[in-house]
Amino acid sequence: MNETLERWSSRRAFILAVTGAAVGLGNIWRFPYITGENGGAVFLLLYVAFVALLGLPVMMAEILIGRAGRRSPMQSLGHLAARAGHSRHWRWLGLFGAFTVFCILSFYSVVSGWSIEFLISAINGDFVGQDAAQVGAGFDAFLADPWRMTFNHTLFLAMTMLVVAAGVTKGLERLNNLLMPLLYLLLLVLAGHAATTDGFGPALAWLFTPDLSAVTPTVLIAAMGHAFFTLAVGACALMAYGAYMPDHQSLPRAAVGVAVLDITVALLAGIAIFSVVFAQGLDPAEGPGLMFVTLPVAFADLPFGAFWLSLFFLLLLLATWTSSINLAEPMVATLQGWGLRRGRAAAVVGVTVWLVGLLSVLSFSSLADVKPLFGMNVFALVTTIPPEVFLPVGGALIAVFAAWVLPEAVSRHALDAGPVGFRMWRTTVRWVSIPLTLVVLISGLI
After folding, report:
1. Is 268 in a helix, a strand, or coil?
2. Would you state the pLDDT for residue 274?
3. Which of 4, 140, 339, 407 lies 20 to 30 A from 429 at CA?
């Protein structure tokens, strides 16, 4: 495959695209509940530190490879390795990344379908007057209904693949240019509303007054893992986006901009959520159920609660939509590298992901007791092993390739950070980011 001729039309388009890739369930669902479970401000402080030391350098490495290769992830890795006098077997890392995002998108589409269901329920005012037990029972009934789950899974995946099939400028770029500003506007509106609640002050104090005595190995590992996952690195998805990066754009500035925007989304979501939680006297350490059980109850008792809750689930749906497009792009790019046209490649990916996703749908009903590996059903397997094991493996190998395999002249040119900036980046990746990624991998295996 020759170099791709597609490019993002502007520097802004590239930054919005990568931000759209990074912003998703990790920021709006996972960040609040994992912050709640790990002490609030001290977790936030460590998370930001590990974004700088782990997530950001590896993200730059991944984009750098795509920019240097200007091909699909698999083709870029094989081409660059051969040019450097190394084995072309490095290309299989691109296939491994495509398999990783295939597994992740198969459940991501199912979970994102939940936001469609909750958005409709919030608009209808179904949560008004319900307590946590009633909301939880309704959620359980929805999970146990394979037909409703399948419909939402199908709708969300169709939304995703239609955009990917349209191409870089007509599909991905247009959607990101529309949805990312809208997403930030919704976040600002929700955060502004949070400032009017009685829980705003306690939420700010809890999020921004760290107690360093609360630092434990568990909190450190959690912050490290979230910093890695939140920037969407490790699956060669950003490598595909890097292939479309404009020629005259500073990669470090763009990457730092994406990291700042990503952290900002998490902070605004945390402020909006915890202000409501504290205003209602609820526990911030509710765990994964914070989004789909605690928040509907908390919002329902506020003035115009149904409206604000509807806005929140609309925000969640938009964030997961842009993120799922990022998951699909490297798979489509890989099939394009094998000679398929984009539209046909998108159809193949969409149908196969949909079929595998049905196993996750049925994991809450007829396949709930089918546990093929490690005592986990299919949904538990795909939500655990790919994010916690496959992504760190991919991230570590990507970092090794960029910092040790690529010739210095190639990586320096693609990074475009100047001699001092390049040395700082390579030193950080070699001696800080790679060891930290291995810690994340080991913790996932344990």
Report:
1. helix
2. 85
3. 4
CA distance 375 to 413: 48
Domain 11-445 sits in CATH 3.40.50.300:
no
Q: Where do we find the tokens 């490495």?
A: 61
376 strand-pairing partners: 373
Report which of residues 120 and 336 the model is more confident about.
120
| Range name among 86-100, 306-320, 392-406, 411-425 with the lowest pLDDT average | 306-320
Q: What is the mean pLDDT of residues 45-72?
A: 92
Structure tokens at 241: 């986006």
Report pLDDT for 144: 92
Q: Is 432 strand, coil or helix?
A: helix
**Residues 6 or more apart whose Cβ sits within 8 Å of residue 29:** 288, 291, 316
All structural domains of the chain with their residue ranges: 11-445
Per-residue pLDDT for 5 more than 60?
Answer: no
| Residues 382, 357 contacting (CB under 8 angstroms) | no
The secondary structure of the chain in percent helix, strand, coil, rounded to multiples of 5, reads: 80, 0, 20
- Here the tokens at position 107 are 């459940």
In this prediction, residue 438 has a pLDDT band, given cuts at 50, 70 and 90, of: very high
Q: Check: CB of residue 117 under 8 Å from CB of residue 77.
A: no
Largest CA distance in the chain: 67
Residue 249 pLDDT greater than 90, yes or no:
no
Q: How does 248-274 read in b/e, with b if 16+ C-beta sit within 10 Å?
A: ebebbebbebbbebbbebbbbbbbbbb
Nearest to 26 by CA among 320, 349, 342, 386: 320
Tokens of 162: 């239609």
**What pTM was computed for the model?**
0.88
Residue 172 is predicted with a pLDDT of: 72
Report the DSSP beta bridge partners of residue 373. 376
